[in-house]
């Protein structure tokens, strides 16, 4: 606004603008979930004010002068099974659900990051790749590559999602190469034959290119989902030395030759083996092609992500999967569990994103593959035809995804044992503080920012997101 236009404003309009600005700086809004389910991710009709008044309660100091990693987003895996349930809804019900999940206005939760399986995952109805051939046949140049079954559900659902949020980040992860590339002609287990490293690199290239033709830009790929877990169906054993060799000699050069800017992310497995990504990143010839490392938390401690960051601070950290489950019909919701472990834990340990597993299933957690699929993998939403119910994963991600938009940065905040928290500054200049009360009683405390304090409280087992 130029100076002459500023003074041309009517006095009442100018005063209203200044009043609104001051109010925005001195008040906060609260979105709350309580353990007893009496409040489930709901904006509270309360006035929370920052003031210069002091008290003796514990104080979380938020400091936006101390900045850590940028944030890419929060979300879920859109598995083939998820997409199958969503595409089978009526057009009206599907549109309403996708808006609720991916838009940011009103009570919509603003999911901003999605993970896709490259080929089938264990939450598909059946196993497939994009290059299924009879045993003994090969296709080294990927001339027969076809996105196949994904055209029936994953791709049309992704197109509807992109219509709502064209900037959503998309990560692709393979569970298994085509069977003809493996040491055993079986989707489960086995290893990638060295003579097919080049062919598999071309498979990745074709995936990125063919999805782009569908209007779907793949921001990043992981080299292999859970490379140390060959018991899943599908799956592949890929120890660190093999992954390093594949990246530096095949996948990295293939992306470079094809002009593909899609990021390459290694590991994509549990936090109990930080040595896996570190040893690969120690190889400078491999590291030059690698953007960072991805983690799950079915084993190990979330602090291992910081170990990898400290070993290679020039590389990014991502959190790509964690199953979050609650008992159907439970009278309580353990919202502090996943919020403390994942939303707060991963971002406090340098992760640029948090993805939970998975977006949608039915009441029996179907579909899943036989001989190694996951019968206990509950969706963030449960879909029964056009009826939708929301589960623990939905609410835990919502507390971050709606407010901590891509381009936000993590900022410093005081950590307390029973008031686990993490703070962010958003692209539009707001501060977001997510707090989980993991203690055994209601916690009364302060939030301090820029010399002023806000007095507030959270029931035991509650999660609050404060925005100002």
From TrEMBL:
Keywords on record: Glycosidase, Hydrolase, Signal
InterPro entries: GH, GH30_C, Glyco_hydro_30, Glyco_hydro_30_TIM-barrel, Glyco_hydro_b
Pfam families: Glyco_hydro_30, Glyco_hydro_30C
Gene3D superfamilies, sorted: Glycosidases (3.20.20.80), Golgi alpha-mannosidase II (2.60.40.1180)
Domain Glycosyl hydrolase family 30 TIM-barrel: 71-404
Secretion signal span: 1-24
Annotated protein name in UniProt: Glucosylceramidase
Native source species: Pedobacter punctiformis
């Amino acid at each position: 606004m130029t100076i002459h236009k500023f003074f041309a404003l009517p006095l009442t309009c100018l005063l209203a603008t200044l009043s609104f600005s001051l109010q925005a700086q001195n008040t906060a809004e609260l979105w709350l979930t309580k353990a007893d389910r009496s409040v489930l991710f709901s904006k509270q009709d309360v006035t929370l004010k920052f003031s210069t008044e002091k008290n003796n309660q514990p104080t979380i100091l938020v400091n936006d002068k101390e900045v850590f990693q940028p944030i890419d987003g929060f979300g879920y895996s859109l598995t083939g099974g998820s997409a199958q349930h969503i595409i089978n809804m009526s057009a009206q019900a599907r549109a309403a659900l996708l808006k609720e999940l991916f838009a940011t206005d009103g009570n919509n939760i603003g999911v901003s990051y999605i993970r896709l399986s490259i080929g089938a995952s264990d939450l598909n109805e059946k196993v497939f790749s994009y290059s299924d051939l009879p045993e003994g046949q090969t296709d080294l140049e990927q001339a027969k590559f076809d996105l196949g079954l994904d055209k029936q559900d994953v791709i049309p659902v992704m197109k509807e999602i992109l219509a709502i949020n064209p900037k959503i980040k998309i990560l692709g992860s393979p569970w298994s190469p085509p069977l003809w590339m493996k040491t055993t002609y079986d989707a489960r287990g086995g290893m990638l034959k060295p003579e097919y490293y080049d062919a598999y690199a071309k498979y990745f290239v074709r995936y990125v290119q063919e999805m782009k033709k569908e209007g779907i830009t793949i921001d990043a790929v992981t080299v292999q989902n859970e490379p140390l877990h060959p018991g899943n169906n599908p799956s592949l054993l890929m120890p660190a030395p093999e992954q390093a060799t594949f990246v530096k000699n095949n996948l990295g050069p293939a992306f470079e030759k094809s002009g593909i800017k899609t990021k390459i992310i290694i590991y994509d497995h549990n936090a109990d083996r930080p040595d896996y990504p570190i040893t690969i990143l120690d190889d400078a010839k491999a590291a030059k092609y690698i953007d960072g490392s991805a983690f799950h938390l079915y084993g190990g401690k979330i602090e291992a992500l910081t170990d990898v960051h400290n070993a290679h601070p020039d590389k990014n950290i991502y959190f790509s999967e964690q199953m979050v489950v609650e008992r159907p019909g439970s009278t309580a919701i353990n919202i502090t569990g996943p919020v403390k472990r994942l939303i707060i834990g991963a971002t406090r340990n340098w992760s640029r994103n948090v993805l939970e597993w998975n977006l949608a299933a039915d009441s029996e957690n179907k579909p899943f593959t036989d001989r190694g699929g996951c019968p206990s993998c509950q969706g963030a939403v449960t879909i029964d035809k056009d009826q939708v119910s929301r589960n623990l994963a939905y609410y835990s991600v919502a507390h971050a995804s709606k407010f901590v938009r891509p381009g936000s940065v993590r900022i410093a905040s005081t950590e307390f044992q029973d008031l686990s928290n993490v703070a962010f500054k958003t692209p539009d200049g707001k501060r977001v503080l997510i707090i989980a009360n993991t203690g055994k009683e209601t916690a009364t405390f302060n939030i301090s920012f820029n010399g002023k304090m806000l007095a507030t409280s959270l029931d035991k087992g509650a999660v609050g997101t404060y925005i100002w």
